[in-house]
Amino acid sequence: MILDRRRFILAGAISASLIALPAWARFGQGFTHNVASGEPGPNSVLLWTRYVATGGSSRLTAEIAETADFARIISGGSVDAAPERDHIAKIALGGLAPDRWYYYRFVAADGNMSPVGRTRTLPTGTCRQFNLGVFSCANLPFGYFNAYAHAAQRQDIDLMLHLGDYIYEYPRGTYPSMDEAVADRRIEPAGEIVHLADYRLRYASYRADRDLQALHQRFPMVMMWDDHESANDSWQGGAQNHDPLREGEWAARKRAAMQAYREWMPVSDAGWAEYAIGDLATIFRPETRLIARSRQPDLGAAILGQADPVAAMKRFRDSVWSDPARSMMGSEQEAWLADGFRRSARRARWQLLAQQTVMGFENMPADIAGWVPPGAPDYMKALATFAPVAAKLGLPHYMDNWNGYPAARSRLLRSALDADADLLILSGDSHNAWAYELREAGQPAAVEFGGHSVTSPGYESYFPNVAPADVARGIVAASPELKWADTAQRGYMTVSLTPDAATAEWLFLDTIQAPSTKLAGSHRAKVAARSRRLA
């Protein structure tokens, strides 16, 4: 693909060393990375910690109580923190009441106790309001996780969602460059992560961040990987920056990435899942990256060397790009989601698809050439030349999201319409903030709220000489589905659900260059129930 900045800046990236020091060697012993919880249900929750003992494996007891003093233990169990799982301990505990906040901890055999965590169960029956925090794209060297810090202090959020790019795989000095990186935001290992030991150490490096620990400690989280938890622009059979000659078989790297994620995150091994929020909503958490995604189409390859690039683009549009066999999720998962829409629409007001990449169609304006700074690299010149032409032909300029899989997108939106679902799509990956009205076969099908990044740069890094408001205004004007955008600020999003409306709020942090929870501003958008349109 010719228009992805990351594809070009990674050209000289070095490979990771074959052997990395194990995480325990750099992060001490005992409870090294606090606690976390996830995958909540009405009567259960999954608890996570990491405990490094001198003798290797250690038996831990998990305890849940209604009060922080643990005067009465209402649920518990035992689990091993074993070296073969990087000393990670995870346990799902039941016997809980719906719609309740709880406290939990782990106790080692020698009496050593973890920090106390807070978690909650999901409601059943009538539910009048439920609030979500939504995060994506947290590249540690680019800046401080102030979005996590701000959200961790709140008392009005029920559940956190992380839509992917929780870590980044690059070596030090690549995205960000050494000049762009914040001085004391150093990742381990130094090289690109390829092998299981590398991935484990990178997670240990990220999870050492105090703001990220605080967020996990105080809220349950539902989450799924995107590409950077494995490698850039990954798909079922490979990735843009995976070189089999230097880095070995993709299948081995993918297995290592998936294993490390499932060890270090408070998640089960389920490929996809749904979460019922009483009669108010169902949250569907799909997998759109590693299990069944077809390879991204490559518009650049289609027009390279062609005497008539426009004719080549038309051929590409009508064949490769439109091919109905190409998929983001695979047929099994598509069937699961369509059935889930039907089941949920019969009993719940909202159907939320909390997934990784943007679904709304985004075009570049015809005057984009005026945005490209002098001396810009070739990929920016290509963007200015071909993106407006592609837009006129109905083609996207970026293919590593749902725009690159139009038949799959159509099938998903069609299944929601067939179920009469009140579909709200939450997406990450793009680093920018968006509000879309999605249509299918001429009908309003869904509203999409795209969350901006925690730290990763957005369009402000592409067009540094253009006012961000002008960039956002130009893209919105060129994109019929897009109704609002912010293309220059970092932070997180909240979504408040009621029977009458769903309201998103994008919160913009004042800085990521220093620790701070000061906000620079915010923006709200709302969709009324049954409207499938922004209010």
From TrEMBL:
Xref: Pfam families: PhoD, PhoD_N
All copies of domain PhoD-like phosphatase metallophosphatase, residue ranges: 132-506
Protein keywords: Signal
SUPFAM superfamilies: Metallo-dependent phosphatases (SSF56300)
Residues annotated as domain Phospholipase D N-terminal: 33-121
Keyword match Signal: yes
Signal peptide as annotated in the record: 1-25
Record carries keyword Nucleotidyltransferase: no
The protein's name: Alkaline phosphatase
